[in-house]
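User: I'm curious whether this sequence folds into something compact or stays loose and floppy. Could you predict its structure so I can see for myself?
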Amino acid sequence: MALGADLEAAWSHPGATAETRKRILRTVLEEVVATLTEARIELVIHWCGGDHTRLAVPRNRTGQHRWSSDADARDLVRALARQQIDGAIAATLNRLGKRTGRGNPWTEARVCSFRSQHRVPAHRPGEMSERGELTLEEAHAARRQQDDGAAADQRRDDHGDPGLQGRTLGGSRGANRGAERREPA
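Assistant: Here's the prediction. I'll summarize afterward.
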């Protein structure tokens, strides 16, 4: 009876080993009945004193276990795989503070393994351009080219064709000044 009063203290005592805890369970439990359903595991615990405790826990789906990466990391890898190589994906996930299912930082090899297990295709060079997508750098360069082209068009409109500036109809500047050419002395 003294064990019942101090069960929690005995269980959580720093000197209690796994073997000690198993002996405590064997002493206080008479039987555990488990019933499996599609979505849950239902337990009925029969205690030695005659009490019964009912528990229900959700059942893991196929491929689901405690080492699974969170859904947010899975979605990020799927999205980033369309734009980046595995090493860049790992760097992005680490910058965002995401960890693997086991709590490790992401590496190129871990991203590659994750993609393989979840059937996420690898990034192909040129894939983004096939879809008509640009990186920020490419968009900036394209915008700069548009701005430079618009500025050149504006200069032409304001001052005429820059290729013709300083020229007359007869040729180069000064060609119509007559025959006064100076020969070098």
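Summary: The first strand starts at residue 29 and ends at 36. Confidence is low (pLDDT under 50) at residues 170-176.
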